[in-house]
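task queued by scheduler; priority normal; single chain, no ligands, no partner chains; default sampling; output format set to structure tokens
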Amino acid sequence: MLLCVTPNPALDRTLTLADFSLGGIFRPTAVLNAAGGKGVNTARAARVLGVDSLCMGPLGGYTGRFVAELAEREGLHGAWTWVDKLTRICTIIVNASNYEVTSVYEQMDALNLDEWQRVQHDIEAHIHQAESVCISSSVPKGVTPTAFADFVAALVASGKPVWVDTSGAPLAAAMNVPNVNIKINDEEAAEALGQAIHDPDQAISAAQSLSQRTGGAVVITLGGRGAVMASAGEGWQSTPPKIEVKSTVGSGDSFLAGLMIGLRESAENALRLAIATGAANAMSIGGGQFSRADVDALAAKTHVTRRA
């Protein structure tokens, strides 16, 4: 079982419009309400791959209750921490004429110290059930980068593999936690190292440098150019198949699901499954609206090579 922690979950509303531009009145051709947040997206993709997950994080108010209900309807089991805040809403507008996506992400009100400590306590109480853990999403207001890093360190200390997928100051703080595993994109890696990343060669060098710093595995995603991974002095590069992209929302989170599950076998298998899962998600609208058959077909077209 995967333990999928979403520090800042959301109610995701995906509206599909025949044509969209600013300043008009529009009526959607389709509306999809779903439990949202990066960790929830990872759990959803893992379920498509046949692996159970437990979703955790803070929820509150009527939107939080709706998120919990939507997750259960999908078979995404949760052990949520209830707080006196209203869970945020994220609105994703898909223009069906060209698949252009416009996203509006609200913020949850700041968590206080007691609420954040309860979140951490609840997660630590369930971590023994998990084979691996991901902590994915932005960090709620009220939680300092130091507090987030302490939280990550406590989970790493459990001995379970812990993957962090966030950005900004919380990411920088988490990178100081020994033995943490990091999934980032090329822009985030460039910021962390203070150097540009323009191609896979520079990406693998960056991943190896960051892996030496953390002592854990580091994966850098490169969008349509694939991804690289470095761990224990070794490196791998993946080349994705060509696809028709309909929406990239949730694709990085789906990638992480494939990665964590694939690591049951090997790093090479993990990168192949990760690329295929992320690509399958990008070929659909709504996040997690793909099949295992889609993933298997794309995995057969994904190439992974070992890099020095």
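post-processing summary
- The first strand starts at residue 2 and ends at 5.
- The domain at 2-307 is CATH 3.40.1190.20 (UDP-N-acetylmuramoyl-L-alanine:D-glutamate ligase).
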